[in-house]
Amino acid sequence: MLRIEAFGGYGEIGRNMTILSFNGVKIALDCGMHIDRLLETNCNMDCFSQQELEYLGIIPPISKVSNLQAALATHAHLDHIGAMRFLNCDIFVPCYTSLFLKRSMKVNSAPIGKKISISDDVEVEFIPIAHSTPQTRVIAVYTPKGTIVYASDFKLDDSQEKIDYGKLEKLGADVLIVESLRVHEDGKTPEEASVKPMLEDIIAELENKGLIIFTTFSAHIARITTAIELAKEIDRQIFVMGRSLVDHVICAEKLGMLRRKYKLFSRRNGIKQALDEVFENGHETFLIVTGNQGEPGSVLRRIVEQNRLCSEDTVIFSCNVIPNEINIRNRQEVESMLKKQGTNIIKDVHVSGHARRQDHANLLQIIDPETVIPCHGDAMRFKAYKELCKELGYEIRILENGQSLVLK
Ligand SMILES: [Zn+2]
Ligand SMILES: [Zn+2]
Known about the structure:
This protein has a seven-stranded mixed sheet with strand order 6-5-4-3-2-1-20, with helices on one face. A seven-stranded mixed sheet has the order 7-8-9-10-11-18-19, covered by helices on one side. The protein has a six-stranded parallel sheet with strand order 14-13-15-12-16-17, with helices on both faces. Helix 11 links the parallel strand 16 (314-317) and strand 17 (344-346). It folds into two domains: 2-187 and 353-407, Ribonuclease Z/Hydroxyacylglutathione hydrolase-like (Metallo-beta-lactamase, Chain A, 4-Layer Sandwich); 192-346, Metallo-hydrolase/oxidoreductase (Rossmann fold), CATH 3.40.50. The radius of gyration is 22 Å and the shape is globular. Helix 6 packs parallel to helix 7. By secondary structure, it is of the alpha/beta class. The model has no long low-confidence stretch (mean pLDDT 96). It has helices at residues 35-41, 50-55, 78-81, 95-101, 165-169, 195-205, 221-233, 243-254, 268-280, 299-305, 325-340, 357-367, 379-392, and strands at 2-8, 17-22, 25-29, 70-72, 90-93, 108-109, 116-117, 123-129, 136-143, 146-151, 175-179, 212-215, 237-241, 263-265, 285-289, 314-317, 344-346, 371-375, 395-396, 404-407. The N and C termini lie close together (5 Å). Bound molecules: zinc ion (2 copies). One zinc ion (ZN) is lined by residues 75, 77, 131, 153.
């Protein structure tokens, strides 16, 4: 008997976790945190015990799982790995994610094109797919009762990652568990490569103007790389500021994805000193900073609150606003302070890392599973998936947290 159990992220957006059990072997697919719920508490993870985090719905109900053999994560976003440190089992993640996690826990980096044996009869495999952070993987779990394929998160973007479509076709999936964040949006998600010409035009225009402040998601190495290249083209000195950004940039450097053509500042004092110099020396710098959602304590927020910007300066938001009350309010506050200082605001220079409806249709036809289980979404998104499966002739099973599907 093979059981697929919905543990987190089914009927909600955040704290993704699915448990597979076969013959006494249990495997967790992702183990993330619910970032919006943590934001609501105004505290960080360290303020709470594991029990409190579970009670508040910030992490999945991990204490209910006993005898977990292994946990596998698809990529380095916190809604997929943010609760891994509470697990006591072997952990396999892509190399980039392992570098990111290694400071706090012991993890194994999973190779490409090679199966990993979890028990006598269960093997797993990591297959490259594109998303908005490096080395995102689809995970295949092979058991004698069937093959489970887990795709969360993904987009089909050949400009980003070398996607092995042939391999995906040959997996022979009995069940596809798949993210559903943007399945209700028609069409295809634009390629990451389409952002570069947009940013190129914007940044070229700013060449002889004041300070340029660029902000995006900290794990979005492709976007950060583009910003660095374009800043170099206009001969600006580049400062990368803020702890989460610096952490990710260092992981990317270790894998040879980035070369140090910039200065890194992660400590409060270092950031303060560097900013003092920037503002004294006529603003001729390109800053890449944390604070794309206007978060309190982020570098962007601190700069804005210090009232030091002027009408020659520009802030580029290369992101969307994650639609929850707190982010919307934080961004409004930052933008209205910027407007008061007369600073030029350029926003939404962004494409998503999540598949839209047409990408989902393509993935279904490539993987061609017997059954589909949508994850990483709420009722509205699951309904959209249901309609898509109906149209394409795929069987779908909707699970809510706590429910399971058993293959006999
Ligand atoms: Zn993600
Ligand atoms: Zn996600």
